[in-house]
Amino acid sequence: MAGEFTAQMSTRRGRWHLYVVLMNTTARWPEYSFGHGGPVPTLTDRVNALSVLGFEPVPDAAWQWTEDSETPFDPSSPVLLIAAIRVRSRAEVGA
After folding, report:
1. Spatial distance between the Cα atoms of 31 and 34, rounded to a whole number of angstroms
2. Please, what is the Cα angle at 20 between 15 and 21, to 5 degrees?
3. Per-residue pLDDT reduced to its tens digit, 15-24
4. Burial of 46: CB neighbours in 10 Å, binned 0-12, 13-18, 19+
5. What are phi and psi of 4, to 5 degrees?
6. Which pick of 5, 22, 55, 93 has the fewest CB atoms within 10 Å?
């Protein structure tokens, strides 16, 4: 799997999930569930999850955070945090 991809992390049903966005393919996106809600997974937890999926952050990449709302256009809606980072396949690094 060549090139760079975007990994995103968000909460779904109270649990944190991380997935790698694979564009222009019918392949299922690699996904990792942290199995807990609550605090945001640590940087180490996120890097380890990417490793399990066969990816790593590209050099000098940083997590970018944004927020959305559970109910669009409702300012009283709970906030959803979404994080993204550029990643590459770990198989590419050794090649």
Report:
1. 10
2. 115
3. 899 999 998 8
4. buried
5. -105, 150
6. 93
Contact 47, 56 (CB under 8 A): yes
Measured in degrees and rounded to the nearest 5, phi and psi for residue 8 equal -130, 150
Cα 10 to chain centroid, rounded: 7
- Predicted TM-score of the model (pTM): 0.84
Count Cβ atoms within 10 A of the Cβ of residue 36 and give its class: 0-12 exposed, 13-18 middle, 19 or more buried: exposed
3: left (phi over 0), alpha (psi -120 to 50) or beta: left
